[in-house]
Specification:
With 297 residues, the chain is α/β, with parallel strands linked by helices. The chain has three domains: 125 residues, Response regulator (Rossmann fold, 3-Layer(aba) Sandwich), CATH 3.40.50; 78 residues, PAS domain (Beta-Lactamase, 2-Layer Sandwich), CATH 3.30.450; 61 residues, Winged helix-like DNA-binding domain superfamily/Winged helix DNA-binding domain (Arc Repressor Mutant, subunit A, Orthogonal Bundle). Helix content is 40%, strand content 20%. It contains twelve helices and ten strands. The strands form two sheets. The protein has a five-stranded parallel sheet, with helices on both faces. Strands 7-6-10-9-8 form a five-stranded antiparallel sheet. The radius of gyration is 21 Å and the shape is globular. The two termini are 33 Å apart.
């Protein structure tokens, strides 16, 4: 089980009191490109979730101590974790148990003995849907930005409303979902940011890297007449320490990493981030990182 999951691989947390019985499932998930983390009970799962937010959770419904249903309720009560899809693994296929699973926040369930192909298919659907929902929210959080997901063939897999508005022009998206030619330059690998003009608008396109299996995220920003982007950071009045924390956040570091680098506890990092989010007027890490990427060295 990796201590630091590969950020380019989706992460699934498997919670079961007998993880050895799930060896074949975990192997299948690894083979499909997932990083698999394992917890033996509900309490251990909650502790692990303090350190990493997975893309999905496979949760045994019946476990000693904290049940899977109660574990799910605690996960959904935490705003920082509520977006994570929970799929129950259970031998209880009776209707009351199925209904309880959905009532406490689960999005799906699979019946034991598990069939690996079915679990993988359901997991892929729910992680993709959750990623789309999260990115849509982040696109709204980052006012004035647009988000585009591009698949491995350079086609648009998803775009936020703002990005659709900017790109759906005579020079914009074709019916097949192709990107305008100038945008392709941002995918070429030679630079992470491209300035261009579409339908009279000055836009910058920044390559934010891979966000899923074979998918890349592009961040679009409209520029003013002078080619400059308005900066919230200039008016945020961040302290020097907050600026350091934001700088490392923009580089993709976790709270634990930032704490180790700056010599502070992860709780202190959390407190700094709360102040940073409030000053920048954002709600998510991705929103703050997007603002910082263009302005913090």
């Amino acid at each position: 089980m990796p201590a630091n999951p590969d950020p380019q691989r989706p992460v699934v947390l498997v919670v079961d009191d007998a993880p050895s019985s799930l060896g074949m499932l975990c192997d299948s998930l690894e083979g499909e490109g997932y990083t698999v983390l394992v917890a033996r009970d509900g309490d251990a799962a909650l502790q692990r979730l303090e350190l990493v937010a997975p893309d999905a959770i496979l949760l045994d419904a019946v476990m000693p101590g904290l049940s899977g249903f109660d574990t799910c309720r605690r996960i959904k009560a935490n705003p920082a974790l509520a977006h994570i899809p929970v799929i129950f693994m259970t031998g209880l296929s009776e209707t009351p148990h199925v209904l309880e699973g959905f009532a406490c926040g689960g999005v799906d369930y699979v019946v034991k003995p598990l069939r690996a192909q079915e679990v993988v298919a359901r997991l892929h659907t729910h992680t993709r849907n959750a990623r789309m929902t999260r990115l849509a929210r982040e696109a709204v959080d980052v006012a004035g930005f647009g988000v585009v997901l591009v698949d491995a063939k350079g086609r648009v897999a998803w775009r936020s409303p703002q990005a659709a508005l900017w790109l759906q022009t005579p020079e914009g998206l074709a019916a097949a979902g192709e990107l305008p030619d100038p945008v392709h330059a941002a995918l070429g690998g030679k630079t992470d940011q491209v300035l261009m003009t579409l339908a009279g608008r000055q836009l910058s396109v920044r390559n934010m890297g891979r966000v899923g299996i074979g998918e890349t995220m592009l961040l679009l920003e409209q520029r003013g007449a002078n080619g400059m982007a308005p900066s919230r950071l200039a008016n945020a009045a961040l302290t020097p320490r907050e600026t350091e924390v934001l700088s490392w956040l923009a580089k993709g570091k976790t709270n634990k990493d930032i704490g180790d680098i700056l010599g502070m506890s992860h709780r202190t990092v959390n407190k700094h981030l709360e102040h940073i989010f409030e000053k920048l007027g954002v709600e998510t890490r991705a929103a703050a990182a997007a603002l910082a990427t263009a302005h913090v060295a």
